[in-house]
Design goal:
Distance between the termini: 21 Å
Shape: globular
Largest sheet: 5 strands, parallel
Number of domains: 2
Radius of gyration: 16 Å
CATH architecture of the largest domain: 3-Layer(aba) Sandwich
């Protein structure tokens, strides 16, 4: 059964991930790179794309590599050389890219596709203006939340919860979030 902390973490990550994967178009039977799969949005996007029938290559660090592989994704390390690692694994350019990595990964992502328009980003807003990649419409998709909450309750979908904190200790998760080392959702509980 899904716990209250998981239920609280689910909506934003799932909605953003779902909207991003939907912006890519039909992913079934296509190779999709999820850049930033170690973020909660990217982790959710990898699961969604696998569920929709894509071959998923996920860039992530060691924290979630096993969980991503268990969920059906092939995992490569992020960072310098990402584009080459991805195209080697894929046997050429990938069909589509969903980017939830911190800004700065775009030069590598552009080497993994044949056209910048095959990339949808939810984090690199400069690339939207300067490089021809796409973003998502701000039409929020609350209709998908029930489906993914039910999957989570059945153990078929997860969002990493790194830690929970009493509400009065709100500064602690804020500091962790700002450090760039959150490693999952940090939740405040009453």
């Amino acid at each position: 059964m899904i716990c209250a902390t998981e239920a609280a973490a689910l909506p934003m990550a799932v909605e953003t991930a779902y909207r991003g994967i939907a912006a890519l178009g039909d992913v079934s039977g296509r190779t999709v790179l999820v850049s930033g799969a170690g973020t909660t949005i990217g982790f959710a996007a990898a699961q969604i794309a696998v569920r929709l029938g894509a071959r998923v290559i996920a860039s992530a660090g060691k924290t979630y590599t096993d969980a991503l592989r268990d969920g059906g994704a092939e995992v490569v390390a992020y960072g310098e050389g990402l584009g080459e690692r991805v195209t080697t694994l894929a046997g050429g350019p990938v069909d589509l890219v969903f980017d939830s990595a911190p800004a700065g990964a775009m030069p590598e992502l552009l080497t993994a596709v044949t056209d910048p328009a095959h990339i949808v980003t939810v984090t690199d807003f400069a690339a939207l203006q300067n490089l021809g990649v796409r973003g998502t419409a701000m039409n929020l998709r609350y209709d998908v939340l029930g489906e993914y909450a039910a999957l989570a309750a059945q153990g078929g979908f997860t969002i990493p919860i790194a830690a929970t904190y009493p509400l009065e200790n709100w500064r602690e998760p804020l500091a962790v979030s700002r450090s760039g080392q959150a490693r999952g959702k940090h939740l405040l509980i009453p």
